[in-house]
Give the backbone structure.
Amino acid sequence: MTAQPAQSPKRATTFAEWLDALAPSVFIWPSVLIILLLAIFPLFVSLYLSFAQVNLVSGGYEVKFVGWKNYEKIFQGSQQRNFFGRWSDELNFLGLPGAPDWIGWAVMAVLTVFLAVMLVSHLRRRQYSPIQLIGGIIGTVALTVLVRVFTVWLVAPSGAMAGTWFEEQYWLSILLPVLTAVGSANVLGIAGLFWRVVTVAFTLALAYLFVITFGADGLPGGTVVTLIFVFGGITTQYLLGLGLALLVTQNLPGKRFFRIIFLLPMLITPVGVGFLFRMMADTLLGPLSPLWQLAGLSNYSWVETANGARLAILITDTWQWTPFMFIILLAALEGVSTEPLEAALVDGANRWQLFRFVVLPEILPVTVTLLLIRMIEAFKIVDLPRIMTRGGPGTATESITLYAFNQWKASTSSIGFSSASAYLLLLLVTFCALVLVNIVRRRVLEAFA
Amino acid sequence: MICLRQPSMKLKALALLISILALTFGVGITSAQDGIVVDILTFTGPQIAEPLQRHAPEFAAMNAGVQINVVTVPFSDLYQTVLTDQATGTNSYDVFVFAPQWMGDYVVPGYLEPLDAYLEADAAIAWDDVAGFFRDFSSTYEGSTYTIPLDGDFHMVYYRTDVLEQLGMTPPATWDEYLAIAEAAHGTDMNGDGEGDYGSCIGKARGEQGYWFIHSIASGFLQSQGTSQGGFFDTETFMPLVNNAGFIRALEIYQATNAFGPAEELNIGVGDTRSLFTAGRCALTLDWGDIGSLSVGEGSAVKDLVGAVILPGSSQVLDRATGELVTCDDTTCPHHVNGVNHAPFAAFGGWSGGISAAAPQEVKDVAYAYLSYVSQPAQSNVDVTIGATGFNPYRVSQFEGADAWIAAGFSEAGAANYLGAIRDSLNSPNMMLDLRIPQNQRYQGVVLDTVLSQFLAGEFTAAEAAAEIEMQWQEITDEIGLDAQLAAYRATLGIAGGE
């Protein structure tokens, strides 16, 4: 404490000064506490609910702890098909279930190569000594396995600790090894590598899930459907938004008018947009049905096929959210300083080079933030599929949020299961957001800057 | 305009505050003075809530010091609102007008008052006039009566009389005949606009009413020994009656109707099929009683061109021991008509009124008197002929006299035909009860609805869908407890002794 007297706050000498020093905390803490309570209380209650079943009984309700049952139902029980999807049971040459088609294999191959290059470049950049690298890996793996074996022994039903609190506390056998892995990777100095390996494994697993549910005998579940909405949606919206913003920054006639027109869709409530597009997509009774009939499409329905329904929702989502991309990218583009542009022009750069080497690097930080916000938001998509297709046909457009909602609305006792689904979504969002922020963002900035 | 003197803001605010206080207390005092207030909870409607609100002033005029309030919530909130009100002990409502399907969830924890004593002392309600199915099954639980039926809900098949005449076909008695008519009529122009129209329109959308229609088709295969046999589970083992030849056949028929309907069929509900049918675009449809009064209503293109018939049946019924279909005879289906087993499905079960057990005695008395008043033939026999009430016939006298129906716009032949179909259904001793066990919404609204929709979208074969429903239904049963569910199921079917 006394080592750095210069940096410690000035000591209060009188009561009044002490009060003065305290004042900021007195003013801030109540609101901080309230916000923390509002944010954290539901988080913990719903976490607890995801391990429970709620039953209505005479005079109230009871919350029954059921352990991992809700999660088991999703990972290996009756709901696996709806949550993750369905795939071929036959083992492929990798010894894994699922039969991706050649496009699927190609996607996996490209992704694997890309991730491998990323890992290797990380190793090169960090220049671990061989001892640190090998020791770190072996140490982390060994410690984790050790703790895992120990905790499994500890919590085994009617095992050595039978009758004590430890019996059947399965969460210990998962939480402790995970903490050990994180901790030992940090202590042994390979934390960067550790997180990259986790990321790579998670990404590959998601991608594999994607390609097998689109492969032979496959059927995409809520997770894959949500990922389609998220990544299909934000890619299209970003490109369109960027294009529109570039157009509006040109000195075209009526650009002020278009600036407002392009913003309108964002101001409409998503439920309203859902109904609007549901009516327009209705080839039978909708306001556009004369047009569909003229085109000879009166006996075609968007929502008849799985991909048609997904496309209809993607189009609607794009219509609604492109303005958000547009307005922020427009602000970023207008903030691009003119000196480098002029200098580049003098040097003889063409339009593409101007964009690629001057404009793009300047708007990249905004881009990454924009994508992050949109991604987090898009993962929660529920209103459009709920209104437009009700998750159908079948479960082709049932996002995870809609799935959790559908489970809950029928019965109070399913609220625990719904919480479990929602928590898995939270995990997925957190993972994707972390990947974007920590890895994609830095690499993109390095590549372009 | 410039005001010379403006009262200060403070004065204005004070005046506002005083008037608000006066209003609040004033209202509070008047309603407290007025004796007995009965609060009725139902859904937003406007149907169902409309007749309840319309009769309230009449009833209050006849009974001094009585006030009837009708409170409405959206349909999707009604089930939970009743549960929350009772489970938390709030008890803001004295009467619930709800779907009898939820009865198990309300009766078991003791939320509803048994009405047997009231009914015995009440001659005006003409209880014997209420069709046997609603009197003995729909309004009872474990032998006691808990609700007063206000509405009769069951599915029928509606057809276009002119289209069938043109085709030289008779109304369908079996589902194979239904498919044959749909196929023959599909693509022909039925409303004179030069466009091909549809053979069969069924609202199959997920999250709407689609899952009720599958049991309208399956009922004829699954239930043959009368209402108390039940059509959802085995009454001894509680095995779901889905993974068998009868239900799989019903799934195949349901899917086969896709080919003769609009392309949008998987995404439309009964609201849309009713518009399509009354616009003259469908030869056949499957619906509750509403089509009857809608077809003679404003904007209908099919006035006097609509016939109704009891739900088609099957000449083969399920043998529960083997899970296979057997041919209908006097033993396998004692209620058969010309060798065809009909089991009209009382989907949803008809809006009914129950009284909160937690209400004070004098309020219960008035509440009962009001439910009885709305249900009495003098009121209800008129209400059921008006499309806007949402009430469908449930009394014998309602299909005996055609006068009220003709006054409502039916032709004599049309009324005779519509009422004949209702009579055939209501008189059937083999009417199939909708599922009323606790948490039935999870069985039907979630599992059946989802898997059925997956099946119609081609994600499952019929056999896979049947196996999937069975597996997920059993999972729910295991979670809630098999013995409790079996006892509840037997109680809804009026089988004595839980086990």
Residues 15-49 of chain A form the longest helix (35 residues). The CA atoms of residues 36 and 129 of chain A lie 43 Å apart. The mean pLDDT of chain A is 85. DSSP finds 18 helices and four strands in chain A.
